[in-house]
Amino acid sequence: MSLLKRPNGTEDILPSVSRDWQNLENFLRTTANAYGFQEIRIPTFEQTELFCRGVGETTDVVQKEMYTVSAKESKFTLRPEGTAGTIRAMLQNGLLNEALPQRVYYILSCFRHERPQAGRLREFHQFGVEMAGSGLPSADAEVISLAKQILDQIGLTGIELNINSIGCPACRKNYHKALKDYFSGSKEQLCETCQERLEKNPMRILDCKSPICQEIAKNAPVILDSLCEDCHTHFEKLKANLDLLNIKYSVNPRIVRGLDYYTKTVFEFVTTDIGSQGTICGGGRYDGLIAQLGGQPTPALGFGMGLERLLLTLKNQGVNLSEPNACDIYFVPMGEAANAKAMQFTSQLRCEGISAQTDVMGRSLRAQMKYADKIHARFVLVLGDNELEQNEAVLKNMKSGEKIAIKLDNDFVKHFSEIEIADRLAVNLD
After folding, report:
1. Residue-wise pLDDT tens digits, 147-174
2. Please, are residues 21 and 315 in contact by the beta-carbon 8 Å criterion?
3. What's residue 393's pLDDT?
């Protein structure tokens, strides 16, 4: 492979699309803040043991997909997901000793070595939230409500919410036995990994990507038939809360999620607009994770939302997050004196937060006008000797074609701001 090519399974986010990313991230932050979540930032890599204990040694993530390096006697892993590192940070920094529930969100990159496909990369980006401290079903409904509001308000349609309960360790014992009994009759047909899972964690077979294993699992027992009274009550109250919030859902007993830390509620928001890998948001409750990582037993829950998948779905549904990143005014200088004046004006305008550019290539008048059109300049102002002598120039609105005389005096920034604001108001009124 050429050293000049990006690694397989990664993407370059070019200026032509980075505005979409910025707008999406700003929207996610604003919506999370409205629900009381605050941003947390964690390291890109953690001690490997964190993910083995937290995510689960029998998961595909730990067994096949992690990027791990050795440094002297230590092993470190690039984070494959955000929850384990976030809980570690909350524990290490004492956040769980403060007022509960603790609500945090993050926007970060994750790394998994898997086969690249549409919306699934080896380096991918994730928005996630974690709420620690509440074991009530109303907390589940609130977290699900946040995810739904994001998907609705951003303009997506046809997104379905699937929910399930995978119970607690107590009621899962009976379920594991039922699964072992079921899969034992087809053990030789299972993939090698699932044959190992059959003894260690048979629920992982339900999440296997092998078509053969998926076919065998179609008629497997469902966890809802094995729930203890507490888990059953929790799930029924969750459904009642979702009904109260007018959030439509389907109960899908096959959802188990791909990570071992989940308990009770699990959920997914799915779409058919990005192919078979249609989950764009998934999460649930993980009441045992904090104690498993060394803290006091504390209920918690959250979700992760893949940004690449979200942007791909937006594109497929024709939802535009932003217009081209236009230049507010482009100066077309003709001559050294005009070039100097244009540089002064662009500097002054930029200090006022106005996007301004001028020629730095020595182009002709015609070439400059063509370039101004390519960068979607809203206004163009040609500066030459005549304009400088008269202390006045013509400002052209590139969309409407309207031409406006503007003074080239010390109040130029004020003059332009008034014209620019008036134009924006006119556009909004139209």
Report:
1. 999 999 999 999 999 999 999 988 888 8
2. no
3. 96
Q: What is the DSSP letter of 381?
A: E
Ranges under pLDDT 70 in the chain: 1-3, 58, 60, 119, 258-259, 274-277, 323-325, 425-430
What digits encode the pLDDT tens for the residues 107-120? 999 999 988 877 67
| pLDDT at residue 323, as a whole number | 63
- Burial of 9-31, coded b for 16+ CB within 10 Å and e otherwise, reads beeeeeeeeeebbeebeeebbeb
What residue type is 425 in one-letter code?
A: L
Kindly state the DSSP code that residue 66 receives in the 8-state scheme.
Answer: -
Neighbours of 400 (CB within 10 A): 10
Q: How many CB atoms neighbour CB 401 within 10 A?
A: 7
Strands (E), 271-364: 279-285, 300-306, 329-333, 356-358
Domain-wise residue ranges, the chain: 15-168+228-316, 329-429
Token pair belonging to 144: 């699900």
* Sign (positive or negative) of CA dihedral 9, 82, 147, 160: positive
pLDDT at 340: 95
Q: Quick one: pLDDT at residue 274?
A: 64
CA 29 – CA 278 distance, rounded (Å): 24
Which among 134, 95, 127 is positioned nearest to 31, based on CA atoms? 127
Number of residues assigned to the chain: 430
Strand partners, 344: none
Report the distance separating Cα 199 and Cα 194, nearest Å: 9
pLDDT of residue 430: 47
Report CA dihedral (137, 143, 148, 150) to the nearest 10 degrees: 170
Q: Strand order in 45-47's β-sheet?
A: 45-47, 74-78, 68-71
| Buried b / exposed e along 182-194 (16+ C-beta atoms within 10 A) | bbeebeeebbebb
Residues 6+ away with beta carbon under 8 Å from 151 = 159, 269, 280, 281
116, burial (CB in 10 Å: exposed 0-12, middle 13-18, buried 19+): middle
Q: Is CATH 3.40.50.800 the classification given to domain 329-429?
A: yes
Runs of H (alpha helix) within 375-411: 385-390
Instruction: Report the C-alpha gap between 90 and 85 in whole angstroms.
Output: 9
Q: For 15-168+228-316, CATH number? A: 3.30.930.10
In contact, 283 and 147? CB cutoff 8 Å:
yes
- Cα-only R_g, the chain: 28
